[in-house]
Amino acid sequence: MGCGASKAPGVEAAAPLTGPVSKDGVSPAAKAAPAPAPAPEPAKPAKPAVSGPTLLRLASRGESVGSAVNDGAPVEHVREDGFSALHLACARGDLENVKALLAAKAPIDATNNSGWTPLHWAAKNGHAEVVDVLMAAGAEIGAVTDDGRTAVQLTLDGDVMKLLGPHVPTRPPRKSPSLERLADQEAAPVEPSADTPAPAQEVATLTGDASAAATVELCTAAVNGNTDAVTSVLARGASPSEARASDGFTPLILAACGGHVSVVDALINAGSAVDATNSFGWTALHWASRNGHAEVVQLLINGGSKALNTPDGRTPMQLTYDSDVIRILADVVPPGGFK
Predict the structure, then answer these.
(1) What is the tens place of the pLDDT at every residue in 132-186?
(2) Which of 295, 305, 286, 304 lies closest to 328, judged by CA?
(3) Where is the segment annotated Disordered (predicted)?
(4) Among the four residues 89, 120, 150, 225, which has the most C-beta atoms within 10 Å?
């Protein structure tokens, strides 16, 4: 054998490079190879199929929101005035929309710009079925609006009153006022409006009956809850309806305000006008309701009181926080609610 280079067994000699090569040493074939694909960008969160404003429009028109909330529409979205889709559905009484929004975890006690919750709106507009659903879902029954009203004080609907009434905490009845200063009594949950303040009662200014002395005696006995004295004055001919304290308070209003059941009963049986008003348009029923005197409220209703509105539009129901009073009044709501 010669001394030339040998190759390893089974390994063929490499074929010489063929084909053109560029000046940089890279073949055209290599240059033609596709560039590697760029790395994918992070996925962006998917937008809900239905936007918040669209959901609000559906709710405000009473159109079904079920598909929208199933597609992830933001149930917490609100308008500039603070109304959510749940507010709008409750105000309209759209029961199915309310259920769909609650199932989608819509904030049940969210307030609008006036402090009103969905329950406030459902109660005000008399939507008893919606109120029932909201209560079952845990709505705050005692929530107070910015102007200090609860749901039961906003409604004029008897069915709503019956739903809410048992859940209103009973407060101790207000104490009897003095004749000299009725306004000195313990503050009640709802005060008369600024233009109808609780008036001072001065014995010296009691007027109205033919006998000033009998008027003074009757009004004094009524405000103090003295049934025997009231009966005695009435037996001597004093008129329970004509006798008036200052600011137009009748003996019946004075007795009702103090929760004097037996005196109220005696005055009603003597023919006292149950719906007579004082100078501010408040009846005995308004005062008894305001001060939480349930037995007196029942007597007045049995005696024919019509649950009139005050001059500023409030019903006896809207003046009370007492659950017993609410239950009694709910049973006498006229068809279609208070007007």
Answers:
(1) 999 999 999 989 899 888 898 888 787 888 888 777 765 555 544 444 444 333 3
(2) 295
(3) 1-50, 165-201
(4) 89
Contact 182, 200 (CB under 8 A): yes
The CATH fold of domain 52-167: 1.25.40
Please tell me the pTM assigned to this model.
0.56
Spatial CA neighbour of 221 closest among 283, 267, 167: 267
Closest CA to 223 of 186, 191, 181: 181
pLDDT tens-digit readout, 47-88 = 556 789 999 999 999 999 999 999 999 999 999 999 999 999
Query: Is there a contact between 157 and 315 (Cβ–Cβ < 8 Å)?
Result: no
| CATH class as words, domain 182-191+198-330 | mainly alpha
Which amino acid does the sequence have at 141? Answer: I
3 pLDDT higher than 70: no
Would 52-167 and 182-191+198-330 be classified into the same CATH topology? yes
Domain boundaries, the chain: 52-167, 182-191+198-330
**Which amino acid appears at position 135 of this protein?**
M
